[in-house]
Sequence to fold (510 residues):
Amino acid sequence: RRVVNGLRILWVLVVLWHELGAFDWALRSCIWPDSQQAQSPSSRVARILVLADPQIPDKHSYSERGVFVSFLSQMMVDLNLRRSWHATFHRLQPDAVVVLGDMMDNGRKSMSTAEYENYHRRYRDIFKTYKRSVPTYFLPGNHDVGLGASASFSPEADSRYTSHFGPRNHYVSVGNHTLVFIDATALAEEDVLRAGKGHSFDSWPAVRYGPIEFVRQIAENHSGDSVVLFTHIPLARPQDASCGPLRERGTIRQGFGFGYQNTLMEGATIFLLDRLKPSLILSGDDHDYCDYQHILPSTNTSVREVTVKSFSMAMGVRRPGFQLLSLISTVPLEDSLNQVPVLPPLDTPCFLPDQIGIYLQVYFPLIVLSLVILLVCNISWSTQRGWGPKRHRSQTRLGYHELSRGMGDHRHSRSTDTHYEMDYPSSLPPPVSKPQNVDFGFTWWKGRWWTSVFCRFKRGVQRRRIPSLPYRSFHRHEASILCAITKDALDVSWPAVSAFVVAAWWAMQR
Fold:
């Protein structure tokens, strides 16, 4: 029982740590980039938390896995997103939040209004701001509004997005920094339309309320503030461009497919860089981290584009992540309301726990180790319990045979005494109750030679039957070990499962 109780305690501690404590521990070194900079008393800092591609799943996301596995996958992803968001939001306390698109995995899919409302309500419940007034800015992604034409895309996807998340193209000023949010999916579609009609960006009659018209308006009204460009689709770059050491695999390459485009085309990229002249570009969609330097055409200076990691464990990266953005401005005079931006904006990546690694590299090996420990202990216990009784049974069987042999000799001696008494009667008379010289025909065989032969034959048959007993006893012994291991495994597992359920319930209720 001490081994079982020890495994119980170990499992409960491991589950509670990896389901609750690991998220805060992973963020222990995640600090705002402005905290490492010397600041004057007149400095003003805006701290913005940037997320990308949470893509909360629905019942259509894993439909090929079956109803139960699809539901279980959705529940585990939601649980991971809740824990990640709770730890991130409460530890970092951002002033604003930016989501770079793909909020919902199937927001573009045809569904009823009630189904979409429930879907959106689930997203808002996961990424709630816990009664804090924190503004959140969204970008449309290809999973939110679609990219290209498809019968599976809802014709109401655009109106649903704008009514639930806000305008597709917009900008906001934060400390004299201008944050520009571009609808990259619409820009990619309009770029194809422009190129198909042979127009340049200067001569192209832009689509009304489209991204090209919006960029032109920003460029005309730009007052020289620092521009931070947010786009869901990354900008174009060479095919062999490096993404830096923080990327998990490969690089970003141009590509197209059903409802997606890996990067914007080169013409659209030059258009954005030339007109907006951003000091920093933040993009999403790729799910992995990438840090790349673009060259501004007009000034021949470089500008960084950071592709932010997906916030979800289900997007093909082992360690999800996000980006911290600090915008620092200074007020030169106490009576002045104008803030002078400090260039460039500061940013740093942060990474969340490897949830898949926790399942595969912590829980699974611990399951195997626990079963091995229970197997070894049960075999040891059964051997210790079985040796004493087996030896006792052997000694008992040996004593029985010796006793039988002794009783046979005694009976033989008694028959001899009887013959002696018959030949040489005692001087004392026999008791009255004892019949004298009465033979009913049943005692004539006693003491004959064939009786000893029969007894020896019987004992030989019993000896030949004995070797078959250990075979049946081995299978009974093996079955008892398996039953004991199963019982111990259940005894060990239920506290761990209970701890997991309690931790999950607590994460859902926060």
